[in-house]
Every structure is written in C-alpha cells, then in structure tokens.
Amino acid sequence: MSDRRKPRILCVSRSISQLELIVSHFSEEEFETILSSSPEEAVAFCAANHISAIVLDSEFVTEGGWTVAQSFRMVKPQLPIVLLQRNHGHHSHVPTHVDVVASKVELIPEALKILLKQLADAEINRVRQIRSSGGSVR
C-alpha cells in the first residue's frame, strides 16, 4: 500500500512520552502518523494538509471553554476526532466537538478504523444521491 493511501493521523499531546505511546499502537502499514506537541501548530498543519483524523490528548479539553477540538472543527468540520482520556475519571458523555473518547491508547486504532469507514460510507452515499438526482460531483 502506498503512503498516499494510508490514513494520515495527526496526534496531538504536549507530552512526548504520550505521543510515543500513541504511535506505538499504530501499524505503520495501515496508518501514517504525524506528531505535534503544539495545539496551535497542529491546527495550522491540519488547515494546510490532508489529514484523515485527529487523536487529541485530554489535556486540551476544557470545561465550557474553547477547545483545540473546536479549532479543528472550524478548519475541517467533518474530520474525525478521537479524544484520549488519560485520567482515571470517566466522562458520562462525549465532549463537544469530539467523536469518540478512548480510555486506553490501544483502543484508538480500531476506533479510527470505524470512524474512517463511516466517513467513507457517508461520502459514497452522498455521491450516489447527487448522481441519482442528475447532479455532478466535485
């Protein structure tokens, strides 16, 4: 499989050891991982490059305030975002602007595969609807 076809996953955490742990659970044959310890640089990189999904460390989620996930949504609204919940407390809900909360790093690749498949299926359905109505696809 060529690198162009691999989903590009942008992993964002201020902790280098956390980034290394996240990447250790991704298969190099299935995913291309890009690491960022700066949320501002990650959002700028996302805006300028093709990214398939984001893995975001929970340190970037705030209670009722602006979040890095919200910034990613403003740049690319359909981009899947997985939040890695590192602390031992459990959210009763998925925070706003996040698609999935993973409590264990090893669950992230499978969650991303599911999210990316759902996104691809939705795009296929969108194209079929446009074509069946006689429209053109961009």
Any descriptors?
138 residues; Rossmann fold; globular; 4 helices; alpha/beta
Chain-wise SSE layout:
Blueprint: E1 8-12, H1 16-24, E2 32-36, H2 39-48, E3 53-57, H3 68-75, E4 81-84, E5 100-102, H4 108-132
Parallel strand pairs: 1-2, 1-3, 3-4, 4-5
Helix pairs in contact: 2-3
Number of strands: 5
CATH topology: Rossmann fold
Order of helices and strands: EHEHEHEEH
Which value, in Å, is the CA radius of gyration?
A: 16 Å
Could you say what the CATH architecture is? 3-Layer(aba) Sandwich
Distance between the termini: 26 Å
| Average residue-wise pLDDT | 81
Structural class: alpha/beta
Number of helices: 4
The overall number of domains is 1
Going by CATH, the homologous superfamily would be: Response regulator
Low-confidence stretches: none
The largest β sheet comes out as: 5 strands, parallel
Give the DSSP E fraction (strand runs of 2 or more residues): 15-25%
Helix content estimate: 25-40%
What's the CATH class label? Alpha Beta
